[in-house]
Every structure is written in structure tokens, then in C-alpha cells.
Amino acid sequence: MKKFDRYDFLPHAPEESWMNIPVCINYSATMPEGSHHGQTLDALYKWLKPGAKCLDIGSGTGYISACMAEMAGPTGKVYGVEHIPFIMEKSIEAIRINHPDLLDDGILEFLCQDGRRGLHEKGPFDIIHMGGSVVNNPYHLMSQLKPNGCLIAPVGLNYETQSLKRFIKYNETSFKVDDITQTIQEPLIPRYEQEKQWLESCAEFNRSFDKLCDTLKVKEIKAEKERKKAEEKLREKMATRSILDVPIDNPERFTHIVNDLSAIFAEHENDTDPFERFERKTKQMWDSKNYG
User: Fold this and answer.
1) Which sign does the torsion angle of CA 138, 139, 145, 150 carry?
2) What tens digit of pLDDT does each residue of 127-141 get?
3) What family, per the record (predicted)?
């Protein structure tokens, strides 16, 4: 994993890529937290040898696919299967930019299709990794494993605590199941359902955004009215203060007073409620300065 920076696969979320959290990539899909990737690769380490043939179902960003391809080496082969074209294209783009040798050497190959039934025509595999959760144990994929092959998948109810399980196949009728850790991963669902969820979430976001804009617009209009009202009231007070006991026959003293009052107004004209401060400062000015 040290060779593969999560940021390279999440260029749209540079800050989140460094956090140990799931990150949304698009179409209601997420990239799991880094610790999940680490636990998965650690559970597969014994089988990730040079020359290994691997299948990554629900390859998403392509991060796990790339890690497996690196460990399988030049004589290995990894198939990443992703049913959302946009997500698959982005994963290929990221790997093409940062690790082009995996694609150029034919170690890593991506296919755009539903991978929930596996990839029987390319099997059997040493490793099958399921990038999303399934409700029931995926026994239907065991026939696509080589003897002593390994399958790993999050198993459990959607969006509830699941068990990351490792299935080791001994022969066609015998296998071992290990519970690696608890996790919560996005379910592997049909493409149409995933796209529907995405469209619904986009529509909900747009509704929320429009509502927020309307609220801010109302507040802005109200604030502008209050500001104008406050400005008008303040100017009235200034006009009253500026002529208090100022002899017309002493223009120099009148100018000093007007300038000082203008300075107070300039200081407080943008305050939300400037009248109290204006009154106080004007009185202080009047009491402390000798305009005679």
C-alpha cells in the first residue's frame, strides 16, 4: 500500500484522502477507509504471490486492483470489474497517470459489466475480492476459485455491521470460512438501482440547495432593509447633533464639530445596532472637547 497514494485515486477529495474514512467517489459509491484496505490485503497476503490471477468485483477507484496487480507481478493478472462506466474510466485514468506500467504490461485489465456473478470465462482465480457487501455467503463464486484459492467479501445486511469473511477453497465440496473483522461497506447492487439512488440523491441535494438559496435571499433582502433603515435613523441623529448649540457666526468651531461627528458616523455606520454607541461617543466627544 505504501506505493499507492490514496490521493492519486481521489483527486477530487485531497483532504479526505488522508483520513481513515470512507470517501464518496460518485454514483452513490464510496472508497472504503484505508484501514479496510489494509485489513483486506493483509488477509489476502498469503495468496498474493507472483503469478497470481485475481478478480476484483466492484473495483471502484481501482485501488485494490492496483495493489493486487503490484503484488502479483509481471506474471500475474488482475481483472477489475466495475458496472458504472464513469467510475471505471476514472480508475483507469488514475492508474494511467500514476502507474501506467500495470496497464501497459497487461497485468491489470478493467471490464465494464455486472460482476456479481463473477467472471467465469476468465477463471479459475487464486483470489476473488468483492469490493461491496452481500447479504449471504457468496458460495456461487466458489466454483471460480482454484483449489486452495481464496475469496474475501463483506457479508451482512445492507448498511449494518457486517463481517469481512475469508473463504478458503480446499476442493469442490470443502472450504474454510474465517471472520476477519467487522465492517460496514456499500452493497453490491444492480447498476440501474445504483444509478437511481444517485439521481435521487442529486435531486434531494438540488432541492436543499434551492431552499438554502431562497432562505439566504430573504435574509439578504431583510438585512438590506434594516441597514437602510438604520442608516436613515443614524443620519437623522447626526443632523440633530451637528447643529446643537453651534453658533452660525463661528464657522471654524462648526467645522470641527461636523468633522468629529462624521468620524464617529464613519466608524459605526456598518454596525448592526449603532445608535447606542453613537449616542455614547457623541456625548463623550461633546464633554471632552473644547470647541470654543
Assistant:
1) positive
2) 999 999 999 999 999
3) Belongs to the methyltransferase superfamily. L-isoaspartyl/D-aspartyl protein methyltransferase family.
